[in-house]
Structure formats: C-alpha cells, structure tokens
Amino acid sequence: MRWLSIVALLAAVLASGCGRSDSDGGVGANAGGGEAKAAPGITDRSIKLGGSYPFSGPASAYASIALGAQARFKAENAKGGVDGRKIEFVTLDDAYEPQRAITNVRRLVEQDQVFALFNTLGTPNNLAIWDYANQKQVPHVYVATGASAWGADIAAHPYTTGWQPDYVSEATAYAEYLKAEKPGAKVAALFQNDGFGSDLLTGFKKALEGSDIEVIAEESYEVTDPTITSQMRKLAASKADTFLNITTPKFSAQAIAAIAKSDWKPLHILNSVGASKKLVLAPVGLENAEGIVSMTYVKDPEDPQWDSDPAMQEYKAGIAEHEPKADPQDTFTTYGWTAASTMIEALKAMKEPTREALMESVRTMDLELPMLLPGVKVVMNGEQDTYPIQAVQIMRFEDGNWKLQGDVIQAGGVE
C-alpha cells in the first residue's frame, strides 16, 4: 500500500541524516534486535504530548474535551503508564484563533519538544498548523474536528489524522434520515463560515442528490459575530420545514432560543458539535430542545441505559478521581476521555519509540473502545480507510434526554 511506502521513506530519511543523541530520549529495541533512537518527547519513563484548545473565547465550551483527555491520561498513569512511560499532556489556550494555534504549536514542538500533537481542536486551527506539523514530521493525530481534509491526501500530510466521524459522514447520516422520515423536505441551513461549516453543508447537499429534498435557504455567520439574530430571521422567512443547524455551541444555543421565540417550528437537525445537553440545550431550556435531531457515536453519560455499563462506571470514577473540576455528564468530557483512550492504544502498539512507529500504529488500527456505541469501531487501513470512525447513530431529544434512534449507520461519506 502507498501509505506503507510513505512511512518507510520517512523512516529511511530520518535514519540517514536526522539521528538524535541518547540525551534526546530513551532507547528501545527495534525489530532487528538492535536499538532505535527515540524521538524528542519520549524516554523510557515518559511520553510528552501537546494540544491546543480554546480555553477562552467563543468556543470555550470545548475546554471540557481537554479535561476529559487529561483525566484519561492520568488514569493510565495511575496504572503504570504505557509500557512504564507516564504520559504528560501539555495544553495551551488558543481562544479558537488560528494564529494563536500556530504560536502554540511552534512552542509545543520547538520549546516543549513534545513527541506528538494530540487532539488539537478546530477545523481552521488545524488547517493553520498541519503544514508545519508535517514539515517537522511531528505526529498530528486524532484532531478534534471532523473536517474531511484530514484523511483526503496522505501523501501530502502523512502525519495528520482525524478521529471523530468526518463531517461528510455526519451530513450523509442526516440526509439519509430525511429521505426516510421527511421526503420532499425544504431545508434552511445556518453554517459557520469556515472549513467546518462548508464541509458539512457541501456533504449534506451531495448526499441529497437524486432525492426530492431541497436546500432552499442558506445563511452563514462568522465565529466572531456576537449574534445570529438577522440570519435566523431570514431563514425563518424562507418557510422551510427543516432547519439544518451547523454551528458551534454558542451559536447552537442562540439558534434554539431564536426558534423558541418565533412562530417558525421546523424539524431541527443540530450538528453533533453543538449537541451538548449541559452546555447548549439546558441554558436555553430543555423544553425548547424537544424534538431536535442529531447524531452520536459515543455513549451518553446521561443515558440511563449505560448506568451499569462497566466502561461508563470506569469513566465517571476516573473523572471524579483525576479531574474533579470536570463534569462527567458533559458529553465533551466523554469525547476527550474516549479520544485519549484511542491515543493510549496507539502508543501501546508502537514497535519502537519513534514518531514513524506511532504513525504506523495509528494507520493500522482496528479497535473496539468500550466508550463507543456498540457497532462503532476505530478502523484505519491505509488508503482504503483513512478516517478512524465512520459509523454513527441518529438521536432525538425527547423528554429531557437524547434517545438513540434506529441502528448504527455505517456512513462512510468521504470518497
């Protein structure tokens, strides 16, 4: 496969001219019985990872993701770490600003000398840093965004991967839901004016081709906008019977509140990144969220069907012990914990302590994680499947909680 050739070439280049001294890290035995020089950020006692998150600014609701990941790494460290190596996760605030993300990542790579970048959040921020990360040959893995770019061109960006279902797969699930439940729907769409918003909306339109469903109105907003009042008025005036809400949490809540105050009562499809019950739905009144449709792939900590689930119990206990300021009921916290579990498994599967070995582990993963919904797996198989998670399940908000609908959908929206 082509990706194997890429990894082999990278390894050969580093071996020929980029060897590092023992002081840069520990050493480990390679497959041939000799010793492989470790990359920066990894020794026989520790692994240093780095991530950039919006701890402040318009997308600060996502800070819970970093807390969930920190808790999972701390829980693993309490059990001895990964092959005796304790994980240090260094996180910096970028306020959801691409330029600050660039500054943060340069610091993480050049000053903190992290072994890998893990789960940095946001489509525009990751697009801003991925050329740099790949030029530096630093793993830039399991990014916290579903943009379809992350697996589209391995040759150009062999060190970057996504984690969650890509936005095209998510959009495909919504389109299939409408075809079954509301054929002939007239859709009004609100979307964030960046790679995140355009990716999901474009994927949705493509998935509708050949159907009687039509997008009849579109409005965009900037992440720096204070409100989306005018956009919502225009969409309501379209008389569409379905509303596709492609927004981050602040604007997701504003959109729900706007509909609640208006006479417009469409079927409301809310993208998964804005579907937090605690941070989005509760502040505007759970009664106003009744009937909203979204999708998921991770077990919901507020769904009583998982109360006796061992993985859920371990998760809640782990948050309470290792990051008590985090809310285990927050689905963003759950997201961070589960993404970190994937990273831990990738680190465990490395054949040697090098960045190339990590990327080989990441790109050959076939994994069932206990916090993912039954039927959802993390699978990567080179060019044939470069998106880790592509199975999702529709959920509907009913009687104060999200309730799963139908079966798991193997979306696979990216071609």
TrEMBL record:
Every Leucine-binding protein domain range: 46-400
Listed Pfam families: Peripla_BP_6 (PF13458)
UniProt KW keywords: Signal
Membership in a protein family: Belongs to the leucine-binding protein family.
Name listed for the protein in its UniProt record: ABC transporter substrate-binding protein
Originating species: Solirubrobacter phytolaccae
